[in-house]
Amino acid sequence: MSMDRRQFIKIAGMSALFGLGGKGAFEFLRPGALEASEHGHGVEYVPEEPAEVAKRWGMTIDVQKCGEPGVVEKCIKACHSTHNIPDFGDSKNQVKWLWQDDYEHTFAGNENSYMDDRVKELPFLCLCNHCDEPPCVRVCPTKATFRRPDGVVAMDYHRCIGCRFCMAGCPYGSRSFNWFDPRNALNQKEYNLDFPTRMKGVVEKCNFCVERLAQDKLPACVEAAPEALAFGDLADPDSSVRQILRKRSSMRRKLELGTKPSVFYLV
Amino acid sequence: MYDAWKILVGLAIFLGLFTFAFWMNAGKAAPVPEPKIDTPEIKKMAVKQCVEDKEYMRTTHMQLVNVWRDQALRDGNREFINQKGEKYVISLQNTCLKCHSNKKEFCDACHNYTAIAPYCWDCHIVPPEEPKEEPREESKGNES
Prior knowledge:
The structure holds 2 protein chains of 2 kinds. Chain A is α+β, with helices and mostly antiparallel strands. Helix content of chain A is 31%, strand content 13%. In chain A, the strands form 4 sheets. Chain A has a 4-stranded mixed β-sheet with strand order 8-1-10-9. A two-stranded antiparallel sheet of chain A has the order 2-3. The model of chain A has no long low-confidence stretch (mean pLDDT 88). In chain B, a hairpin with a 5-residue loop joins strand 1 and strand 2.
């Protein structure tokens, strides 16, 4: 088949018209049908307007109280049993929501040359700092991790593709990758049936117990050790955490990075 | 046409093999599933009523669940108001599965029939079913 220039331009022109005008043609022939199939599938849901006064959840950790025997352990146990966190038994595959570390590593860069033995030995509870400027959220390519208006940096495991950019982005090591199916390292009889597990290939971290906050409960670790941990609204000057912070001097981890953490260590 | 019978025989064999799956399974259609709703929780209900009416749930539950997940997780809005204005807590594990505690006979019945495998259960925990069915399929990969 031969084609002259005139024919070619005609065909190319018509193709371009239909190609580019695809959506327009749809709208012309079946108004609204395309939109409907793209959004919601007929299930109506309009997100609510964000509350006018955004809360800002924050936590204080009393380091001295954490040094008392059993306090750190019971916090970690409460967290892990609430959120079905697997224990693979080695640090390489460890899944960390709430864990303990020493001063030197928690406040890397701030250590004195001649530290007193007491602080040197103290256990520090570490968790996701739920930063105001979370680097993990900035690097996530799928928006699987996002910052809620109340300051909680949350994870949407449905969207996580396991690229681990967020793990590279987080300066606190608060994120862990599921190299294996977490259910292999969980006791089925000890599942907390109110909370899901995760699956192989997603990154997970502390969620500030958003599922408990939704029910007006405190986070599991705070509930387990109210003497050492406090939780509240940093935006409210009269909240429990703000009152504590007014009286006690506190530290935050790696402030120099500008992430603005919301976990305060009371010294 | 040269070698007509060879071609015809070849064609017949080809068509036979090509349609093997159809005539092999002819007349053996899998029975249409009947998802069971005879769980203790549903038996207790005076009016057997899901979050929306039956026909809506049958055709649209997948979209509804999809919307629920974004609404609860991303917007932090865990309250669902159905077309009648009744309120429900959005939760697959705690709302759906509380009544439909028989995943095998309810969810799986249709999902297997239509050969789809939703990945809900990779993370969401199926509550233990009646004690009679103690060895659940999930336990196969569970060493500890």
